[in-house]
Design a protein that fits this description.
With 345 residues, this protein is an alpha/beta fold. The chain folds into 2 domains: 125 residues, ATPase, nucleotide binding domain (Nucleotidyltransferase, domain 5, 2-Layer Sandwich); 174 residues, 2-Layer Sandwich (Nucleotidyltransferase, domain 5), CATH 3.30.420.40. Strands 3-2-1-4-8 form a 5-stranded mixed sheet. The radius of gyration is 23 Å and the shape is globular.
Length: 345
């Protein structure tokens, strides 16, 4: 018996619904934060909705090729952990440390990875078979905070991120600012103590060489070698193996004067750096983040703010808010998800 027009229409609608149901949903994106110590990948339905994450160590000593393979592995595991396939991923955004030429998809110089002129975008596209876009990691942290935490409201924002390295990002007139050579925001390599400790970039006295995580750990070990005492040796052993920022917080809260002095010095240097940046850029808000702030915000933020206001030129800090980010590790992957989804400021 021939189907009626109504029955034909019902069958056609059912067939179309089945096709939609089985068709791959490629509206998901992946945001990746590539750091000197860890790779973090997040899968997003939209840039404010992370549905799953995966983290592995970076191991930069293995060289660029192996690190890129580890990024690919981290992404694959994050996607599989969300019961998705790579075919359902619209794009992948990645934040890389150092100087990045986003247009060419290259990491020009990343001192904490030992990279020069690495074609990160195309290498990852070959491994993953999905579109990849790259940007400086702290630019993306700033973008993530700006969109997810601040809801795109301030016209002028400065992001400062303290971790293995130190970097920053600038929002000027509501737009992410990268500068002429795509290197704006490299505040970790602003010299604030001429003749100070050697930095990974080759200069001396950089902000990063005074406040970066490895700098803090090196200073603590040097003081122990000079005979000073710390609870960290009881907590972690004489060689302070596997020391983390969180261990510094634990030691301070147990009354460790050595660690407290090292962290207070780092907070003062950070405040001095912020005063210079406030004088130059005049932001509405300064947001601090990164692993060191995540672990030590309570100990550092009051000193950072007091020092910044003391050193800033009179009037330049009026009305300027100085706060710590609530996104934590998710700032970088959130900003990376924003660019992967094709959004721009």
């Amino acid at each position: 018996m021939a189907a009626t027009a109504g029955e034909w229409l019902v069958h056609r609608l059912v067939d179309e619904l089945i096709m939609v149901a089985v068709a791959p949903n490629n509206n998901h994106v992946v945001g990746v934060d590539l750091g000197g110590t860890k790779i973090l990948a997040g899968v997003f339905r939209d840039p404010r909705d992370c549905i799953g994450k995966n983290k592995i160590s970076t191991k930069p000593e293995l060289g660029p090729k192996k690190v890129i393979e580890r990024i690919s592995r981290c992404v694959r595991e994050a996607v599989e952990g969300c019961d998705l396939s790579l075919e359902q991923i619209k794009g992948i955004g990645i934040g890389a440390p150092g100087v990045v030429d986003a247009g060419m998809g290259r990491v020009v110089f990343a001192p904490n990875l030992g990279w020069r002129n690495i074609d990160l975008q195309h290498e990852l596209e070959s491994l993953l078979g999905r579109p990849v876009v790259i940007e400086n990691d702290t630019n993306l942290c700033t973008l993530g905070v700006y969109q997810a935490e601040l809801k795109n409201k301030p016209r002028h924002m400065l992001g400062v991120f303290l971790g293995t390295g130190i970097g920053g990002g600038l929002i000027i007139d509501g737009k992410l600012f990268s500068g002429f050579n795509h290197s704006a925001g490299e505040i970790g390599h602003m010299v604030i103590a001429a003749g100070g400790p050697k930095c990974g970039c080759g200069n001396r006295g950089c902000f990063e060489a005074l406040v970066g995580r490895q700098s803090l750990f090196h200073r603590i070990r040097a003081k122990i070698k000079d005979g000073e005492k710390t609870l960290l040796t009881e907590m972690l052993g004489p060689h302070l193996a596997d020391m983390r920022s969180g261990d510094l917080r634990k030691a301070i809260r147990k009354g460790d004067k050595l660690v407290q002095k090292v962290v207070e010095d780092a907070a003062e240097y950070t405040g001095i750096a912020l005063a210079n940046l406030i004088n130059i850029f005049g932001p509405e808000i300064v947001v601090l983040g990164g692993g060191i702030i995540d672990a030590l915000a309570t100990e550092m933020m009051p000193i950072i703010e007091e020092t910044a206001r003391r050193y800033a030129m009179s009037g330049t800090d009026k009305g300027v808010r100085i706060i710590s980010s609530e996104l934590g590790d998710d700032a970088g992957i959130t900003g990376a998800a924003v660019i992967a989804s094709g959004q721009t400021l």
